[in-house]
């Protein structure tokens, strides 16, 4: 594996957004604040909210226009909520981020591109839109409020608690799935719950592993209470659980989806490969968007799931 310095450099080079932060770009004061505010919302991270759409697929309602529209609306609301949590977290961690080798360059607040005085009005607008969401999807917004409160606790306390910090991140993904189920009025199966939790724990554990590898204990306070070996064990347990629970779910509840199991297995293998040998994984979103094989695997899983469930018209 490359050294920590080389991994950080490669990460910056491979990140398409970081090209705007190179030495060839204007100083932060010369860049439009609006672009900085958009970046502060981290729209690239909205891909995580695709978990909101999972119930739409598994319930076999992806051909129903009303269900699709409701799921997409829930996706938008959850994306705005996640942007609000990112802004709060960045405001809270601005001084720590300035000491981080990557965040000090990539984060608009830490780099000085955006000032806190600009961030607060944007945060108010996002909350105003979310309040409006109660009039169109009150059940979904109930889940989103839980997500916002959980992340508020994370920003101020849970992120400093070992193991709890990983579970908090994972529960956020479970809430995404639950919001998607509320949007189309279907129950969340126990299999979907435990599979999502296991997969999210795997991604969160890998994130902590790469933060340790790339930045050491200086990157985040909680990292002082972790080691690479222990988070590797967390990741192994979680990955195994995700595969087993998904397979049990397919065989017991959706046997037509057995064709998707190889995609899940390959995706786990490929993700671990790009973590171990390519130095990715600190950001699951960047890992997905920069690795063609991983992107094709996810696309293949989606297409295989749609193909398998298309003729059935099965409900939840």
Architecture blueprint of SSEs:
Layout: H1 4-14, H2 33-40, H3 54-58, H4 65-92, H5 94-97, H6 103-106, H7 108-111, H8 116-133, H9 138-156, H10 164-183, H11 190-215, H12 228-253, H13 261-278, H14 284-290, H15 292-309
Describe the fold and architecture.
- Helix 10 (164-183) packs across helix 11.
- The chain is an all-alpha fold and 316 residues long.
- The protein is built from 15 helices and no strands.
- The chain has one domain (34-309).
Short structural summary:
By secondary structure, the chain is mainly α. Helices cover 68% and strands 0% of the residues.
Radius of gyration: 20 Å
Measured between the Cα atoms of the first and last residue, the distance is 45 Å
Helical/strand content category? mainly alpha
Give the integer mean of the pLDDT values.
87
Q: Biggest sheet, in brief?
A: none
Domain count: the total is 1
Low-confidence stretches: 1-27
SSE pattern? HHHHHHHHHHHHHHH
* Helical stretch tally: 15
Strand content: under 5%
Fraction in helix: 55-70%
User: Which outline best applies?
Assistant: globular
Please give the number of β-strands.
Answer: 0
Keywords:
68% helix; globular; 316 residues; 15 helices; single chain; mainly alpha
């Amino acid at each position: 594996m490359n050294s920590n310095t080389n991994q950080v450099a490669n990460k910056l080079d491979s990140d398409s957004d970081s090209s705007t932060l190179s030495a060839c770009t204007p100083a932060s004061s010369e860049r439009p604040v609006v672009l900085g505010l958009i970046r502060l919302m981290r729209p690239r991270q909205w891909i995580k909210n695709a978990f909101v759409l999972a119930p739409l697929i598994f319930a076999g309602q992806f051909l129903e226009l009303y269900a699709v529209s409701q799921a997409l609306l829930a996706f938008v609301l959850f994306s705005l909520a996640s942007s609000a949590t990112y802004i709060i977290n960045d405001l809270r961690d601005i001084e720590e981020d300035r000491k981080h080798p990557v965040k000090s360059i990539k984060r608009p607040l830490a780099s000085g591109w955006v000032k806190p005085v600009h961030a607060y009005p944007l945060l108010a607008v996002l909350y105003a839109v979310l309040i409006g969401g109660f009039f169109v999807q009150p059940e979904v917004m109930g889940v989103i409020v839980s997500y916002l409160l959980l992340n508020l606790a994370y920003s101020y306390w849970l992120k400093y608690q070992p193991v709890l910090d990983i579970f908090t991140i994972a529960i956020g993904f479970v809430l995404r799935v639950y919001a998607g189920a509320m949007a189309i009025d279907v129950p969340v199966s126990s299999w979907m719950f435990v599979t999502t939790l296991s997969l999210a724990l795997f991604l969160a554990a890998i994130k902590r592993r790469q933060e340790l590898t790339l930045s050491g204990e200086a990157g985040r306070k909680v990292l002082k209470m972790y080691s690479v070996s222990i988070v590797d064990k967390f990741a192994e347990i979680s990955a195994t659980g995700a595969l087993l629970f998904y397979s049990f779910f397919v065989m017991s509840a959706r046997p037509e989806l057995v064709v998707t199991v190889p995609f899940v297995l390959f995706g786990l293998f490929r993700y671990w490969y790009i973590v171990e040998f390519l130095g990715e994984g600190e950001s699951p979103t960047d890992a997905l968007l920069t690795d063609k094989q991983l992107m094709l695997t996810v696309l293949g899983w989606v297409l295989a799931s749609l193909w398998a469930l298309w003729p059935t018209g099965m409900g939840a």
